[in-house]
Each structure stands twice: as structure tokens, then as C-alpha cells.
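Form 12-C: Joint structure prediction
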Amino acid sequence: MSAAKPRTAAVLGTGTIALGWIALFAAKGLDVRVSSTRADVKEHVTRALRLYAPSLPDGAVPVDLLMSRLSFFADVEEAAAGAEVVQENVREDLALKQELFGRAAQAAPEALLLSSTSTLLPGDLGALLEDPARVVVGHPFNPPHIVPLVEVVAADGAEAAMVEAAVDFYRFLGKRPVVLRRAVPGFVANRLQSALLRECIHLMREGVVTVAELDEIVTASIGSRWAVVGPFRAFHLGGGPGGLRHLMAHLGDGLERGWAGLGTPPVDDVTVRTLLDQADEAFGAYDYEELAIWRDAAQNAVIAAVEDVGKPN
Amino acid sequence: MSAAKPRTAAVLGTGTIALGWIALFAAKGLDVRVSSTRADVKEHVTRALRLYAPSLPDGAVPVDLLMSRLSFFADVEEAAAGAEVVQENVREDLALKQELFGRAAQAAPEALLLSSTSTLLPGDLGALLEDPARVVVGHPFNPPHIVPLVEVVAADGAEAAMVEAAVDFYRFLGKRPVVLRRAVPGFVANRLQSALLRECIHLMREGVVTVAELDEIVTASIGSRWAVVGPFRAFHLGGGPGGLRHLMAHLGDGLERGWAGLGTPPVDDVTVRTLLDQADEAFGAYDYEELAIWRDAAQNAVIAAVEDVGKPN
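Section 2 - Result
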């Protein structure tokens, strides 16, 4: 098998992440073997494809064409048999995931075994396999058919060729895989999100800004900035012609003083009530699906805009 | 005077922020009275305008036309005389800013007095004025001719009409002003940036990712997300049809557990050396000006892309 030119992939589960992968895998021309015990699995997947088909990264694809590339199996072994890649997306239950990987590995001894987990570590997922390091985390950012990032996280002792195969597979899908140098709980993007959210909740709780005002501040400043350059490159450019070296010399202990002043809000009744009340006011009038479709279209437009500008010289 | 249709503005200082404001003020057709004691002020400003003219928000403007709208004064009183708005951007030295606002207020008793300060609080800046609350912070995000956000921060007891006038002025410039409900050190956007950067530096220091990999992770995920929806709206959509209410019930103490696991890196020799070495590797090959021009063009493209998609229904 070649993960750079795969033909058949199994998708375990039919939750939100699984549905995004199914849409993308089918849009890229793969035969997709869906494993689910849902009685209404075809209707369930069709509904999701209708929602996602217009915002697929290479443009809209007819739902019938996508559906024609799918087959459905109640049994994990049947779904995995003949698949070059297995992407697992069941609920965050370690024992369940271990069992499924054990069964998939039996049915597809050569397949690349990938997990979408956001909270479990790769070394634990393959516990029932002869080589536990055979399971690689390929953690997407929701929704996986839109957001380019996949965090690739391997267990200690994983073969380099297998990690490369995972990277090749995600590149084939048009994703931007980044291999973490070691596994940490929460990986990277969710930890960064969590760090930012803590300060957002602090400032909201302290009455400095409302939920709606905070979102406006971010989209009008650091959001569009970080769509273009990451935090480090932004920091480097903030230093002027002397770059980061000049900035670090100039800041002195300013970084640490700034960090010491950040908030550590409790998630108590006041926090939750204030957050939910302000969220109702900010988003309550919107239909969830319409808002999600709008977000996906806008995010695709942002990604395309950055690509159009091209790389710096 | 009307801050929604101003004709004349004074700009105090000729640092990076001042230069961005000068370019934008002139591009919007204002007569700009620049206060600077630099002997080479005209050459200095002309160089900056050449750099900024192509990335002005409504499209390129000839440098000669921009320059024809500027006049230069060594004296603060002369610059402020006749200006409807004074935007102060000198170095972060409280005594200096207080003195300049005292002198500007004498020369222009009716002018709107605005400060670009990022670290000082509005109540302190007007200490030498009859009404200390007359100075309002209008804190831009660098570069001010590109990034839409202006944080408007007033002292306790500031007149509502004056805060409105500041908002009108920044709207006239095409900015997205957000009024903070109270003043906190660092305001909002820089505090959020600081919170994220702390975790970035932690993950870099711990060897999970390099500087370049971390930037790739952010631009490929949360960056393009936050250019479109802020952190709270993203969080709300992450909850599915049940929104934030469902998510908060589902998370339990997950938020606080996640926060407890975030890093608190020391800014010691190891941190600084690792950061600078990796930054050299990531950005060392780029010319600063070329990289800044590219960032500005790409950020303008992102802002335009989101505007083109329009608001959700």
C-alpha cells in the first residue's frame, strides 16, 4: 500500500469528526468503508454530506457521487478488511478504542492505523497490538474537511516509516500535517486554545468586555494576524528590523511580568451563568447549522486568500 | 468639531505606530499636523509612506499626495493648534506623555485627546489637565493602517460624549473600535496574545514543537478560525446544535483541568537561547521589510475575504 496514493480507507464511527473525514475521503476519490452499528447510518451520513458538500475544499461535490464511494459495515473487521488506512473516531473511551484497534489490526495487518483522539495518548491506544506503537494519532481540528491542520503524534518507538506514511496520507488529503516531537496531553492546538480561552473567560468575568465584544476584538486583530503568521513570527516582526533578538533584549522581564498579571478564573456559578447569558445574547438569534455553514465558508475563504497571496520571498 | 467628519488631526511622535497613523490619516484625506523634533522628519516620514502606501486599506495612494496633506512642527503647541483630534504616540514614558497632553490641551482646548499607549492607563495620562478624564486611550494594533482593531479605553468619570467622539473618529478611519468597560493593564488583545505566547514558549521549551512548527500549527488551525469567529463563538459552535450550554454541561471540570496542565515557563537562559536559535532558523533568511510587506498584504487579503463572505444570516 502507499499512503501517498491510497485507494481504500475505513472510517470507524459516525460522530461529527467521522462525518467530516467521510466527506473529505470521498471527495478525494477514496473508497470509504464506514463502520457503524447505527440502524439509520445511511440517512445519518447522507444528511451530513448534504451539509458539508458545498464547503468541500476543492469545491462542491454532488452528494450522490460522494455516497457512491461509501460502503457500510456493522462489523469493524469487515470495514477494515482491504483498507489501506483506518481512521478511528469513536467516543473518547480508551478501552473501546483499544478493542477496535485490536480487531482492525487482525483484519487488516498491513493497514495504517490512525486515531482522531484529542485526549488520549498514542502509546495507550495500541495496547492490544503486537506492536503497540503501530497506532498513530492523526488529530484533526473540527471540522476536518475544512481546517487544514492535522497533528500527527506517534508513540515512543514508533517506526519512522509509519509516521511518514501518516504524513503522506494527510498530505494526499490536502491537509497540513505537523508531527509533534513528543506526545503531551491535549497536543498543541487545543492547549493554545485553552490558554487563550482562560484569559477570555477571565476578562469576561471581570466585566472588562462582554462575550460579543471579546470576539470582535479577536477577529479584528490577532485572529486575522494569526491566520497569516503564527505567534512567533508575529512576535519576531513586532521587534522591527532587529527582530526577536531585539525584542527579547528590549522586553527584559516584561514577558514574565505580563504573565504574572494574567487571570486564573474559577469556573464557578458566576462564571458559567455570566458566560451563558452573554452567549445567549450574542449567538442566541442564530440557527446553529446556518452559523456553522457560514463559518466554514468564511474559513475556506480565509485559507484561499492566504494561499493566493503566496509565500514571502 | 465633529469626530465623525474631522478635517485636521495632530500626530505626536514619529515611531512605528505614529507612522502608521500618519499614513492612514493622510489616506483618509485629513490634514495631518506632525509633531517631531527630528531634523530629518520629512525624509523619515517619506520613507515610511513609501513602505505603507501600497498596503493602505482602500488601495495604494501616491506618496506625493499623502505628503501634500502633511505639515511638520517641532513644537507640540503648534502641531495641536487648530487640530480637532490629537493622537499621541511618543515612547511609553508617563511624565513625558502627561506633559505633552498638558501642552496640547492648552493649544487646542476643544480637541479630542487620544493616546496610542499600550501599557499606561487613561486616568494617569491626563494628570496635568483640568479634567484628567479628557484623555482617552485609542490603542491600535500594529500596524495601525492595516489591523482593524482600536481598543478605546476611558478613565473613570470620562464623559460619554467624549468616548463616543473617539469611537466616531476611529470609525471614520475605517477601524473597528471596541470600548472596554473598564481599564485593565495591557487592555485585552495584548493580554490574550500574552496568554497564548506563554503556552507557545512552554511547548517550544519542552521540545514538543519548534518555533516554525508551532507557527504552522496556528496558521493551519486556530488562526484562520479566529479570523472568522472569535474564541467564544468558536467554542459555542464546538458544542454542536446545543451550543455553549451543551458544551459547558458536557465539559464538567474539564476546562479547569486543562488550565491546570498549562505551562508556566521561566524566561531563563535556556528559554531565550532556544527561542532565538529556532527563530534564526525559521526567519533568519528573510529580509525584515519584505516579510512585513508580505504580512500586511496577506492580512489585508484575509480581512477582505471575511468581508466578502458577509455576515451570517
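Section 3 - Comments
Chain A touches chain B through 107 residues (CB under 8 Å). Chain A has a mean pLDDT of 95.
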